[in-house]
Amino acid sequence: MKVKIAQIQMHIREDKDENIKRAGEFIDEAAERGADIIVLPEMFNCPYKASCFPEYAELPGGKTYTFLKNKAAGKGVYIFGGSIPEKDEESRVFNTCFIFDRKGNELGRHRKTHLFDIDVKGGQSFRESDTLTPGNGPTVVDTEFGKIGVMICYDIRFPEFSRMMVNEGAGIIIVPGAFNMTTGPAHWEILFRTRAVDNQVFTVGTAPARDVDNFYVSYGNSMVVSPWGEILGRMEGEEAVMLTEIDTELNTKIRNQLPLLKHRRPEIYKS
Ligand SMILES: O=C(O)CCC(=O)C(=O)O
């Protein structure tokens, strides 16, 4: 089955309303160009800064959630809403992707499960756990294009997580992310291609546009990778909407010819 995936690689500013407005303009453009699925980047309504997350956080049903829901219904598209800081009744804050179908029904939500706490010597440092609470598992949603797994950024570094999604039947893994200028050039492409080849799935990474004046500089490089490990679409640092058509039959074709998933020996893998 053919699916047109639109990735919105946008700049993210201080002003939440401005971010929502820009996302809306790009969603309109993607829908006009025939997208079936539209994907936004990680933290698309909020600067990627731990101290901003509680300040920008919303309860489900809040302003950004309602915006995404209405856009999905209004344009008749699936929206994988990048991520936003979500708060719950106890004021805990999560990094959450809300997913809507063509009618604006919430299909699922993924709370980032592996928090990004790193300190690379002479490079990037970040501590999401200063303000965020982790989610506790993988997310797989049902669509007319089959099952789609959803994870957020750092989650992709944990191979077991993708495998859990594939074991649940996911044929595409959608990953809103925001790698930086230290880990991005080193690992982003390798990770998306490796997860695709290991699991014989499409991987879709969608990042903010690069803004060298930001506190956190996104690597950008939004990409779609085939189950054969081929890069089907790739941006650089620019702000743009990229459309890539994929064919979900490819998963089955590749799995029949190279039956990796059948050849697994889970009884001898201990971890
Ligand atoms: O894993 C990385 O290098 C980047 C992760 C990240 O930026 C994130 O999880 O938001």
TrEMBL record:
InterPro entries: C-N_Hydrolase, C-N_Hydrolase_sf, Nit1/2_C-N_Hydrolase, UPF0012_CS
Gene3D superfamilies on file: Carbon-nitrogen hydrolase
Protein keywords: Hydrolase
Alphabetical GO biological process terms: asparagine metabolic process; glutamine metabolic process; oxaloacetate metabolic process
Provenance organism: Dethiosulfatibacter aminovorans DSM 17477
Name the UniProt record assigns to this protein: Predicted amidohydrolase
GO molecular function: omega-amidase activity
Pfam families linked: CN_hydrolase
Domain named CN hydrolase: residues: 1-248
Family stated for the protein in its record: Belongs to the carbon-nitrogen hydrolase superfamily. NIT1/NIT2 family.
Record SUPFAM superfamilies: Carbon-nitrogen hydrolase
